[in-house]
Amino acid sequence: MAQSGASKVTPIHSDRILPAGAGAPNFTLHATPDQTLTLSDLLGRPVILAFYPADWSPVCGDQMALYNEILPEFQKFGAELLGVSVDGAWCHAAFAESRHLHFPLLADFEPKGAVAQQYGAYRDADGFCDRALFVIDKKGIIAWSYCSPVAVNPGADGILEALEDLPK
Predict the structure, then answer these.
(1) Which end of the chain is more exposed for a tag (fewer CB within 10 A), N or C?
(2) What is the CATH number of the domain that holds 83?
């Protein structure tokens, strides 16, 4: 199993984020300044949603770099990885280019945090997303969810375990 990149921490599951067993709310967000991605278009394959506070912050940069490094592990399960924050598409494009990321970063920009709110992963007082992770099964049902403290990289072990536990 891949290294998580974070020290072992006790999982924190916010009562606000959608739990396992809930249907994943559909959305359409900008993946680039001129292209959108719709979650329901990915039905039939597992999806990893990684909500994170902001591009360019040290913890977020490390978290996205880790996921980029172990992207082949996620792909072994046929999973699609999607990063989501309230930053705009142009900011995401610059961030992805500078970090050499090979997965979509989705702009939950306008209305700000609307998708994160649907997943219970928006911090109203702060104006950005929680560091929340969701593994969605092939049928669009949340199989696993986790909310990490904002200052803690949640790593990838939980994601990989959830992918391993999905029905084949």
Answers:
(1) C
(2) 3.40.30.10
Which member of 60, 91, 129, 147 is catalytic?
60
- Could you tell me the residue range of the domain that residue 69 belongs to? 28-165
The Cα–Cα gap between 59 and 36 comes to 26
N- to C-terminal Cα distance for the chain?
19
Provide the number of structural domains found in the chain. 1
Give pLDDT tens digits along the chain (168 positions): 333 333 333 334 456 899 999 999 999 999 999 999 999 999 999 999 999 999 999 999 999 999 999 999 999 999 999 999 999 999 999 999 999 999 999 999 999 999 999 999 999 999 999 999 999 999 999 999 999 999 999 999 999 999 999 998
Instruction: Clarify whether 129 is annotated catalytic.
Output: no
**Which tokens in the block code for residue 137?**
């099964």
Query: Does 18 reside within a domain?
Result: no
Residue 133 lies in a domain: yes
The answer to whether position 32 is within a domain reads yes
